[in-house]
Amino acid sequence: MPDLRTALVAGLAAVAATASPAAAEELHFYNWSDYIAEDTIPSFEAKTGIDVTYDVFDSNEVLEAKLLAGNTGYDLVVPTGIFMERQVRAGIFQPLDKAKIPNIEHLNPQLMDYLAQLDPGNEHAVIYMWGTTGMGYNVDMVKERLGEDAPLDSYDIFFKPEYLSKLADCGVHVLDAPTELLPIGLHYLGLDPNTGDRADFDALTELLMPIRPYITKFHSSEYINALANGDICFAIGWSGDVLQAADRAAEADNGVTVTYVIPEEGTLMWFDTLVIPADAPNPDAAHAMINHLLEPEVTAAISNYVAYANANDAAKAHMDPEILNDPRIYPTDEVLARLFPDQASSQAVDRLRTRLWNRFKTGI
Q: Which of 196, 216, 316, 347 is 20 to 30 A from 51, alpha carbon to alpha carbon?
């Protein structure tokens, strides 16, 4: 991102000149929407005496804009891996004091090794949750329109106009996340998801533009309730979000059945991370919260509630077997082999993605 480091330095300078120390009994936590258990914050407050202000966002771009502006007032934030990687390189986060996070020992070494490719030495970040990006749909509505023989386990449903056009009348939502949707499209075409080749982007444009008329909305959180309520019939979304929609529909007993599919072609896997901004007013409180979130029972409760996989090996003993044994949440080795991890891209690739995404969203 152009001028990332310059913006950071200016923001931190402003903080140093104007900020006053905040009370150690306060923590400002900025997390994704619908991404924590109901008792996670209250149990932390009761255990530590630290008051938590909890705010939510629904895109990495929103979080990054705040971080670049500086002086956010947040002590703990949750960027996705590829955004975290470039933000670490820009100096936006402070190194973790791992002596204050003894529960870090519970994190799966293989998953942390992957994270180390984005954050060398795991100096700044730990894994909060991880998951996949795939397809969520209203089973009855989709089968009614496409028939029983449609390839419901394939991205053909989304990328081929002959299928998606038949779903337009019942509503199609797509994540407002170019860093995920565009690599998925490239992978579907058999191309490098992180390509910077203009010819590949031309092919991706030819894939995407014919389906644009059939997309109702680009949004990264509204599809949860929309699926659960039967307001839409199809979404490209995050695994846990779609499964939350399925649970809400079941609890409401509203006649809506929602399912999540990891397409047979494979799809993107991602990690959301816990990091402390360099200008955090209360880094000690942030360390305490990270350690709390990595308590096996706490981690398990979050996964049980939000239906996302975690990296905490010790949490498995406390998890709902329906979550732990659900291959849509914890994919089998066969499915894992077809997934590809998100990776940070160059500024040149970012520009290509931005131009294409803007064109795709506007339909021009």
A: 316
